[in-house]
Amino acid sequence: MGAKFLDRVRQEVLVGDGAIGTMLYAKGVSLEANFEHLNLVRPQLVLELHDEYLAAGAQVIETNTFGANFVKLDAIGLGPKVAEINRQGAKLARQAAAGKDVFVAGSLGPLGRGKAELSAEQLRDCFRTQSLALAEGGVDLLILETFTELEELELAVLAVKETGLPVVANLAFGEGARLSGGFSAEDAAQRLASAGADLIGANCGAGPLELLATLKRLAQASDLPLAAYPNSGFPEYLDGRYIYRATPDYFAGMAREMVEAGASLVGGCCGTTPEHVREVARQLAGLKPVARPASRSVGTVQVGTGTASTEQGFLTHWGTRKVITVELDPPKGLDCSKVVAGSRALKEAGADAINLAENPLARVRMGNLALAALVRREVGIEVIAHVTCRDRNLIGLQSDLMGASLLGISSILAVTGDPANLGEDAGASSVFDLNSFTLIKLLNDLNRGVNALGNPIGSGTGFTIGAAFNPNVQKMEVQVGRLARKVANGAQFAQTQPIYDIARAEEMVELTAPLGIPVLPGVLPLVSGRNAEFLHNEVPGIVIPDEIRRRMAGRSGDDGVREGLAIASEFIDAIFDRVGGFYLIPPFGKHEIATELVKYLKAKEKQ
């Protein structure tokens, strides 16, 4: 049937089905439910939807498996059922198509946020496993859809081609027919053809009109058959639900224009219904794919127009002397005089940069970006602003980062952030559109002069990009692998969780040396035995050796501070010649303690 599908789609225009999620929601399925799991627990509902689209005139129906990959299913405890859910999804669509002259397409979507934790081979395995299960269930072709990252779709095409089935590769383009990373429609057409896609196209997005413009560009860049699955316009939020305004008649008229632009497989995405498909089938009945001139050679479009700054800020000192950064806590209220005074004292002592965390432990503090700009202006010292993925969505992150660049902030430490439920505000929720890996990539894109959609923003932001590293784990190689991926995404330096074990610090230095970036070990001086026990037993990511806890036992007050500084100095002495600098974290925001260590480091450097 795969070969038959390819013959048909070259000879006639085929009509696809419409939205699955929209219609299942309309049938009463909660948005919190996993739609793909319905293949197992409510198969009759899924079969009913397939029947409705077939009755409307769909000639290609998709399986209810868009999000049935291991990354998404494992996150909700359904990882072991990946193959079963996909096979069942294929069988349900196959059952609906029985005896009809129609094709069944196995639907695969992007892997989602969790993919950042996986290697390239693990990503391929996710797509391979899903596609093989769909093939076993009896699909005629595979349709990869709603991908926003070209690299992920390329990898997916290569993986699913192992089934031997025809592959449709659809991207969800942003404004101006661009993708994350700055890739254009022309770039995508060439690279997907090289990867082995049998059809290329676009789906989802802003609506039919914008998708039509993208389709015209794809048609000029490739000779492959084209697929088009637009949304039914922009959704409008009304009375607790999203409403799509595009009428079936308007949608079908746009579908006809897409055929005239070169599409030979036309269906619908979000907001489309059997009524939309019925009108599309009526208006496209009997149409043949238009003759298209041989695609012209389109060179790879240069990504972005910005020129990222080569200035490395405080890292200009790396390799010539020890880089010293110090963390201070933004205030819980509006009085920031303590932070300004502490920054001034630390600068005078010889610190290179001040770290300002963003709502650490998900507890509300003054906005660190505004405070960073104030410290830079008042004190004249560089500030490393920590930016988390918890509190803003992708739109807000981009907006605030561009604003930070405008304010002169030149160094960012990208962290995922503590979940909101750790904090004091019970009504707060975590966003996590991105994680530390993808936030670093976004920062790198902004440095290159493009936003997350690849649209030019002017000159590059020129951020010095930092990453967090936790050496206090059983298998440090895993963390080093994570850091390597952050470096590949654009990280230029790393700061670690506090380390107290000298042997562990030496292992970290050895394992991270090949990455070629400064890794600044975290030094958090202890102040009492109680403080040491709290950090060891209650703070994630901190491990304090038994010997050090014994040394601190029973100590408090000035005696505790002296012993804590002595332990910190011994740690610095042990690895001084093997690291490029240090990340000092004064306990309870007491900059005086950090100032003592800065002075100690500067004196040691002169020895």
Automatic annotation (TrEMBL):
Pathway: One-carbon metabolism; tetrahydrofolate interconversion. One of its GO terms (molecular function) is metal ion binding. Zn(2+) binds at residues 204, 269-270. GO terms for biological process: methionine metabolic process; methylation; tetrahydrofolate interconversion. It comes from the Bacteria. It holds the Pfam family S-methyl_trans. Residues 2-284 form the Hcy-binding domain. Signal peptide: none annotated. Keywords: FAD, Flavoprotein, Metal-binding, Methyltransferase, Oxidoreductase, Transferase, Zinc. PROSITE patterns: HCY. Its cofactor is Zn(2+); FAD. This is Bifunctional homocysteine S-methyltransferase/methylenetetrahydrofolate reductase. The gene is metF-2.
